[in-house]
Amino acid sequence: MSLQRLLSSIGPAVLSGVCAPGGTAVPVGDVVIAEPDGGFDLRPGDVVLGVNLTDRAQALRLLSSCAGRSAGALLLKAPVAVDETVVTAASAAGLPLVQVEQQAGWAQVVSLLRAVLDSEGYADSGSGTAGAEAGDLFGLADAIAAVIDAPVTIEDRSSRVLAYSARQERGDEARVATIMGRHVPDEVNAHFRRYGVFHRIAQDTGPIYVPAVVEGTKPRLVVPVHAGGDVLGSIWAIVPGPVPAERAEAFADTAATAALHLLRRRAGADVERLVLTDMVATVLHGQEGAADAARRLGLTTGPWRVIAVGVRCEDDEEAERQRLTVWERMSRFRGSRLRSPAAVVGGVVYGIVPAEMVGPGPDDGPGWLETLRGTTGEPAPLLAVGGLAASVPGLARSREQADDTLDLLRTGLIARHQAVHDEVWATVVLRHVARSAAAARIAGVGPLRQLVDHDRTHGTNCVPTLYAWLQERGDPRAAAARLHIHPNTLRHRMRRLQEVVALPLDDPEVRTALLLQLTARRYGAEGGPDDAVGTSG
C-alpha cells in the first residue's frame, strides 16, 4: 500500500501530511511504535509512531533514526509535528512526516492503521475486495455530502463507521468521537435507540430526522440503506435543522448507490471472514493442516491461550453487534501482524492471544480481559480462558478447556462473568463427572430417589442436609455452618432423614456412592448449582 492510499483511507480527521519530499506514492509496511528514548525494531517501509513524543530533541533523534533505516513515514503530534526545525530536518532527510490530530488517541490510530493495512493485504491476496471498496466508499461519502450540503458518515448495520466525508469542521463532538473510534459512542447510540431510530432504519426507506437532544450533538438526517428487504446500513448527515423536502429526497436517492457499494463490500468481507474462520477453526480443532493455518495466522511463537466469548443478548441484532465488536477487538490485539487469529464459530467468539495478555494490567489495573468486556455494552459477555498452549497442537486442548469454562459460566456453576480454566478446573471435572453420571442414570439408583420425592412432597430438606453432612465428612458443626443452621437442627434433620429411609452411613462405600450421586445432581443442573441440590437452611 502507498502512503497516499493510507492517508486517504484514514482521512484528514485523523492524519494530515506535513511534508513528503519524495511524494506520497512511496510504499509503506507495518506499524511500529517508538516510545520516547526507547528502542524499537524497524524494517524498510515501516510506518513509525512517535507515541507521546513532545520534545524537539527527541523528535529529531527519532527522525534521524527513521531516515537512516529507510522508514516509510514518521507520525507525530503537535507541537513537534509542525515544529519548523523538525519539518526542515524531515525534508532534508527525505522522510515523509505526517501529523496526527491532537484528539486522536494513539491506540485508536494504531487500530485504524492496522485495519487499513490488513484489509489491503487480504485484497492483494485475492481473499476479498474490502481494501478497494474502502476508497470508493470515502469518495461516495464526499459525493453524498455535496448532495445534502452537510458532513456525512456511512455506517453498517452495527453502527460501525465504514467511511466519512470531508466538511469535518461542520460536525459536532459526537461525530469526531465516531470517526476517531470508528463506532458511534454508546451514550449517543442509546439516545438514537430511545428515539426509535434503529427501529425505523429497519422498517423505513425514507429519510429520518433526529433532533438534537444529547449535549454536544446537532440534528441528524438518516437514510436507511436496504437491499432486497435486508438492512445493509445507513447514511448519516449532520444538519442545522429540518431539511427541505426536495433536498431530503435527493439525499434519500443516494441510498441506492450506497447499497451497491455495501453489497460488494459485504460480499468481500464475507469471503475474508469465511477464510479466516476456516483457518482459526482448523487450528482450534486440531484438524489436518493446522500447522499451515497457524503459520498463515502469524502464530509462530507461543505460548498462547484460547479465549471463548459468549454473548448474552436476547435481541438477535444486538447479539450480533456484540459478537462483531468482540471479534474486532480480539482480531487486532497487540503484536498481531495479520488481521485476526479470531473467529465467530457456532455463536461463540474465539480468539488466540499471547499468554501474557491474560492477567492484570499495568500497576495491577484492569487487565486486557476486563477492558474487552467493557467494550460491548450490556449485558456484558461471558469470557472463558483456556489453559496454556505452548505449541500449535496444544491450541485444540486450550479451546476445549475454554469451552468447558464457558459452560460453567453460562450455567451459573461459576457465579462470575469471566474465568480462567486454571482456576476452575476442579469444577470442570465435577461437571464432566455429573454429565457422565446423568447419561448412566446413576442419580436415580438406590434410596436417594425416596429422599428426593419426600422433599418434593413434604417440603423438607433431606437432600441438602445429607449432601452437606457428606461433604463435611459427618462433622455436624461444619455441615450446619454450610447450611447456615444450628448444629442441633442438623442432628435433628439427620435423625428424621433416617426415618424416611434407612441409610447405612457407617459404610464408606455407601457414603461414597451417595456423594457421587448428589454431586452429579448438583453439577449436572443446567440452571445453576442450587437447582438440583439446595443449599439453604
Automatic annotation (TrEMBL):
Superkingdom assignment: Bacteria
Family matches, as Gene3D superfamilies: PucR C-terminal helix-turn-helix domain
Residue ranges constituting the CdaR GGDEF-like domain according to the UniProt record: 288-407
PucR C-terminal helix-turn-helix domain boundaries: 463-519
Pfam families assigned to the protein according to its UniProt record, in alphabetical order: GGDEF_2 (PF17853), HTH_30 (PF13556)
PANTHER family in the record: CARBOHYDRATE DIACID REGULATOR, CONSERVED PROTEIN
Family the UniProt entry places it in: Belongs to the CdaR family.
Protein name: Putative CdaR family transcriptional regulator
Source organism: Streptomyces lydicamycinicus
Lineage per the UniProt record: Bacteria, Bacillati, Actinomycetota, Actinomycetes, Kitasatosporales
